[in-house]
Write a structure and sequence with these properties.
With 281 residues, the chain is an alpha+beta fold. It is built from 5 helices and 19 strands. It has a 17-stranded mixed beta sheet that branches. It has a two-stranded antiparallel ribbon with strand order 9-10. The termini are close together.
């Protein structure tokens, strides 16, 4: 079983091409749980599987979190898989990738940088306060695509000076807040300069902070654009894994396009031999 490992701003993924591997879909959650375990296997935030298109795209992406749960979509993963598709002859410099939450379009900027149009916001609640530990936190709630990928957007002053260990208990509590019917990714942000943000995201399925979250970054900038706090034009967001850029195109009060631009990195390619799977690749 051949694999490619990539990361987008530190958000890392294992990619399997099921056009050639022909793995049963029923086996993919367990594959994700085993292969994504750090130290014990390859290690990653998630597993992405390339399948044949069913809705007119160049190919279809199935996404599984590290715990084996199926994800709706992943922005950093979409950039990585667009590069994978281009370099493996599945698409040209412009791609149409089918995801469980809708079509994602991508464009190659250069060898390592890709721009993707994220799925449309389907739920936007700019005032969704949360109570945890006797404290009320201001929050916006965003869902992207159908079914919606849920994100909580929460301001946090001096975020760059806060440790993950300090914030982890709060993030874990908010991630399962009862006001979120399917839980939510928790995105803390701090406005550091005009159109410049610091961000830290606690992701569902990983159940910890990740180095970056593309859809989370898009949700943060979308909420702040609609509030008039940022311009929405090439807003720069710094996370532990690097910098992403977001552009929000509007038509009146409606959001027309939500673009994510950032780097990709091919870490390694090889053959899976993990004996915990009970198979030989």
């Amino acid at each position: 079983m051949q694999f490619t490992k990539m990361n987008g701003a530190g958000n890392d993924f294992i990619i399997l091409n099921n056009l050639t591997e022909h793995l049963p879909v029923s086996s993919l959650p367990e594959l994700a749980r085993v292969l994504c375990r750090r130290r014990l296997s390859i290690g990653a935030d998630g597993l992405m599987v390339v399948e044949a298109s069913t809705q007119g795209g160049n190919f279809r992406m199935l996404f599984y979190n590290a715990d084996g749960s199926e994800g709706e979509m992943c922005g950093n993963g979409a950039r990585c898989i667009c590069r994978y598709g281009y370099e493996h002859g599945l698409a040209g410099e412009e791609q149409r990738v089918e995801t469980p939450s809708g079509i994602v379009t991508g464009r190659r900027i250069d060898r390592r940088h890709y721009r993707v149009r994220l799925t449309d916001p389907t739920v936007v609640e700019l005032d969704h306060p949360l109570e945890a530990g006797g404290v009320t936190y201001p929050c916006a709630y965003i869902e992207l695509g159908t079914p919606g990928l849920p994100h909580a957007v929460i301001p946090m002053e001096n975020l760059a000076e806060r440790s993950m260990d300090d914030l982890r208990p709060l993030a874990a509590a908010l991630r399962r807040h009862p006001s979120f019917p399917k839980g939510a990714n928790v995105n803390f942000y701090d406005l550091t300069a005009p159109d410049r943000l610091q961000e830290l995201t606690f992701e569902r399925g990983v159940e910890d902070f990740t180095y970056a979250c593309g859809t989370g970054t898009g949700s943060v900038v979308l909420a702040l654009t609609l509030r008039g706090i940022v311009s929405g034009q090439d807003v720069r967001v710094t996370m532990p894994g690097g910098e992403l850029r977001i552009t929000v195109e509007r038509e009146g009060e409606a959001v027309r396009n939500l673009y994510l631009t950032g780097p990709t990195n091919v870490v390694c390619e090889g053959r899976v031999t993990d004996e915990e799977l009970g198979t030989k690749g």
